[in-house]
Design a protein that fits this description.
- The structure is a single chain.
- The protein folds into 2 domains: 186 residues, MFS general substrate transporter like domains (Growth Hormone, Chain: A), CATH 1.20.1250; 175 residues, Up-down Bundle (Growth Hormone, Chain: A), CATH 1.20.1250.20.
- 82% of the residues lie in helices and 0% in strands.
- The protein is built from 16 helices and no strands.
- Helix 4 runs antiparallel to helix 7 and helix 8 packs parallel to helix 14.
- The chain is globular, with a radius of gyration of 20 Å.
- InterPro entries: MFS (IPR011701), MFS_dom (IPR020846), MFS_trans_sf (IPR036259), MFS_Transporter (IPR051788).
- It is found in: Membrane.
- Its main location: membrane.
Length: 384
């Protein structure tokens, strides 16, 4: 009888792990599907570059509003309900983003779309922390690997459909069909229990250790945002790479990060979290230094690849640390850390631009490399 119960428990645990991977895939596909639609939205709404930049801020604003609230919602409702609601909201917004043609309606839809991403992002990481705890081994990198792979799938499928002559709406409906299948698959296996206890506050201002983890996440997300928004410009202006090849920088970074995360659990389980975080942060810092110091486009691309591989498992390790700390309830800590970290993607590129204008893009990248050394120096304390 005990053997049957153990077998059933193991089967249920494996189903929950697969469902968690599916949710990360949903988030990655859904978020990345918007990127190829941006030029079409700009043309439909007759937006200037400046107006488009303002419009895109609404996506980040929606996420930043939703993320701190998600910890409270998961505490009261459980991961399953929040993930299901956020995913459905994301599904509903994508067709609107593919068809709306006025700045106001696009801005409002982008804000809701960003809020949906924020809800799913925080809730799926809370789910992942609980699943990893129950498994008793490192799994967070693999989960985030599915998010990265989803980004490649989402942007790739929409871009391919558009290249074949499909309209933005048809391209999005193809994506939605895939997302609905994934959504249906994972619904029966997500964690439904509430994490809130009667004596646990529904909201806690991040402090102490959680605040420190958030700052380190800010540095890691800042690194990713810098490669995303400034990598192409660095290659064209500093390394004289043709504009048609400038996208290679973020491409090699993304592929390296995806591969690093998909194999990350094996790396973490073999070398340990401390060594993985320490060496990974040093690798990312070294990659930026290589990109800055050696005046060659190929070396710069190799540098970006090292940044992607080095940073790939750092954020998952941060989420695991947030789930284990005792300063705040895990759901609230993850929500707070995600919000602070996500600000790195939003505000970080602007900070890089400011430093670049005062000095140069090389100096800005060097500053990020120095910040990554702070992450490396904190590895032992984070993973204790």
């Amino acid at each position: 009888m005990t053997t049957l119960e153990d077998s059933a428990s193991e089967t249920k645990a494996l189903a929950t792990q697969r469902a968690t991977r599916a949710v990360f895939l949903i988030a990655g596909i859904g978020m990345a599907s918007w990127a190829p639609l941006v030029p079409y939205a700009k043309d439909r709404a007759l937006l200037s570059d400046g107006s488009l930049g303002t419009l895109l801020l609404f996506l980040g604003l929606g996420s930043l509003v939703a993320m701190p609230l998600t910890g409270m919602l998961v505490g009261r409702l459980g991961c399953k309900r929040v993930i299901a609601s956020g995913s459905l909201l994301l599904l509903l917004m994508l067709p609107l983003l593919a068809t709306l043609s006025t700045p106001v309606t696009l801005a409002l839809t982008l804000m809701v779309f960003g809020a949906a991403i924020g809800l799913v992002d925080v809730a799926m990481n809370i789910q992942a922390v609980e699943v990893e705890k129950n498994a008793g081994k490192a799994m967070m990198s693999g989960f985030h690997g599915f998010f990265s792979a989803g980004g490649i799938v989402g942007a790739g499928l929409v871009s391919a459909a558009l290249a074949l002559g499909a309209s933005p709406l048809v391209s999005v409906l193809i994506i939605n069909f895939l997302l609905v299948l994934l959504w249906i698959y994972c619904q029966g296996h997500l964690l439904s229990q509430r994490l809130h206890q009667p004596d646990t506050p529904l909201f806690v201002v991040p402090r102490g250790w959680v605040l420190f983890l958030g700052v380190l996440c800010f540095i890691l997300f800042l690194t990713e945002g810098a490669i995303l928004d400034w990598g192409a410009l660095f290659l064209t202006n500093t390394r004289d790479l043709p504009a048609s090849q400038a996208g290679l920088g973020y491409a090699v970074f993304s592929v390296a990060m995806t591969i690093g995360r998909l194999f990350g659990d094996r790396i973490v389980n073999f070398f340990g979290r401390t060594a993985t975080l320490f060496c990974g942060s040093l690798c990312a810092a070294g990659g930026l230094v290589l990109a800055v110091v050696v005046p060659d486009a190929t070396c710069t691309l190799i540098g970006f690849l090292l940044v992607g591989f080095g940073a790939s498992n750092a954020v998952p390790i941060m989420f695991s640390a947030a789930g284990k700390q005792q300063v705040m309830p895990a759901n609230l800590a993850i929500a707070a850390m995600t919000t602070i970290g996500y600000a790195g993607i939003l505000a970080g590129p602007a900070l890089v631009g400011f430093i670049s204008q005062l000095s140069s893009l090389s100096v800005a990248f060097s500053g990020i490399a120095a910040l990554l050394l702070v992450v490396a120096a904190s590895a032992r304390q984070i993973t204790r």
